[in-house]
Amino acid sequence: MTKKNATVLLIYTGGTIGMIQDNLSGELRPFDFKSLTKQIPELNKLDIELSSIAFQKPIDSSNMNPSIWIDLAVIIKSNYKKYDGFVILHGSDTMSYTASALSFMLENLNKPVILTGSQLPIGIIRTDGKENLITAIEIAGAKEKGKTIISEVCIYFEYKLYRGNRTYKYNSDHFDAFKSPNYPTLAEAGVEIKYNKNALIKKNKKKLIVHTKIENNIAVLKLFPGINKKITSSILNSKEIKAIVLESFGAGNASTETWFINELKRAINKGVIILNITQCSEGKVIQGKYETSSQLKKIGVISGADLTFESAITKLMFLLGQENNINNIKKSLLSNLRGELTV
Ligand code: ASP
After folding, report:
1. For the whole prediction, is pTM greater than 0.90?
2. How many Å apart are CA 69 and CA 101, to the nearest integer?
3. Which tens digits make up the pLDDT trace of 305-342?
4. 146-184 pLDDT tens trace
5. CA triplet 157, 208, 33: central angle to 5 degrees?
6. How many CB atoms lie within 10 A of CB 190?
7. 8 Å CB contact between 134 and 40
8. Closest ligand 1 atom, CA of 119?
9. Ligand 1 mean position to 67 CA, how many Å?
10. Pairing state of beta strands 6-14 and 85-89?
């Protein structure tokens, strides 16, 4: 057998993509990954040697949780030397969370980790899964001068490659299900796959560090006109709470009512980190632009700038898992660690 140009490990976690329809009952069930090339014979034509690992119990991605992120990070760590790239098959519902979490957990990543999935199961005639899977594998194995082109965690969906920690799922019906509102696409697949080279994370010579500690004592406070003091207070004073993602209005604005600011101030003084991101799906927080955000800045709310909600949540979980020093965590929140933030 002639040696292929690249090796890719496919990791199947679950989601619609890996399902086929039972001929008799019409029911959707996960298919046996060992027969992947039977489902998609085109895979044999790629100049890529493919291996696969399937979770014993494939999950709908609504059941995704940090312990599975850790499993994925460990699988990548233990296979890092053996493969040129990795493709993770994942339900689209929480794919952006997993991509964001993995981006933080895999420090100094110098190989592609591409998440993909589909809106229709692979066994259905009109499936979007085949194209997503074939091109994701092609991208994971694509090389230039002997080195893989991509060295970050990405999502490939409907002809576009995105930086994973810049995405969110915005459409539950369309094949084109993801958006990256504040960062350009990394590649587009047409007749050829065109890479946006300037937008890619550059390779480095450092060794991969895999972080496997995650802290999930965090909560979300989404503002709305009429938000109630008692409920706000109960969220901010929850036992064990370490950090809160504050979803504010527009460019990071919030009510200037005294009770509201005092509640936030009290939580911050107790050591709770408050990270301010915008409810808008595009744009960023600029604390101090309006009077309604100056107060937040003054009391020590941290600006999340253009972080997505998914990145804000997973960056906090990751940083809180790494250390206890609040000032260091706040500094890292303001820094661009994996291309998640425009500074
Ligand atoms: N509910 C499914 C999941 O996220 C949808 C999909 O696979 O895209 O697992």
Report:
1. yes
2. 7
3. 999 999 999 999 999 999 999 999 999 999 999 999 99
4. 999 999 999 999 999 999 999 999 999 999 999 999 999
5. 45
6. 7
7. yes
8. 8
9. 19
10. parallel
Count other Cβ atoms within 10 Å, centred on residue 304.
29
Residue 222 sits at φ, ψ, to 5 deg, of -95, 120
pLDDT digits (tens, 9 = 90+) for 131-143: 999 999 999 999 9
Nearest to 37 by CA among 21, 29, 28, 49: 49
Measure the CA angle with vertex 309, ends 305 and 313; round to 5°.
100
The pairing of strands 178-179 and 209-210 is unpaired
User: In residues, how long is the chain?
Assistant: 343
Mutate which of 61, 68, 133 for ligand 1? The one with the most ligand atoms within 8 Å of its CB, which is 61
Candidates 105, 94, 217; CA nearest to 152 is 105
Q: Which residues, including other chains, have CB under 8 Å from residue 67's CB and lie 6 or more apart?
A: none
Q: How far is CA 216 from CA 66, 260, 277, in A?
A: 8, 25, 18
In the residue annotation, 2 being an active-site residue is answered as no
Kind of pairing, strands 178-179 and 160-163? unpaired
Cβ-based neighbours of 293, under 8 Å, separated by 6 or more? 248, 251, 252, 253, 254, 276, 285, 286, 287
- What is the whole-number distance in angstroms between the Cα of residue 190 and the centre of ligand 1? 25
pLDDT at 16: 85
Helix (H) or strand (E) holding 147: strand 147-148
Rounded to an integer, what distance in angstroms lies between the CA atom of residue 66 and that of residue 81? 24
Query: CA 259 to CA 294: how far, in whole Å?
Result: 16
Q: Over the chain, what is the mean pLDDT?
A: 94
Q: Are 338 and 103 in contact (CB under 8 A)?
A: yes
Asked whether 98 and 87 are in contact (CB, 8 A), the reply is no
Residue having the nearest C-alpha atom to atom 6 of ligand 1: 91
CA of 308 to the centre of ligand 1 (A): 20
Ligand 1, closest atom to CA 17? 7
Strand partners, 273: 243
The residue written with tokens 């034509």 in the block is 45
Q: Which domains does the chain have, with CATH numbers?
A: 6-210 (3.40.50.1170), 218-333 (3.40.50.40)
Judged by DSSP in three states, 163 sits in strand
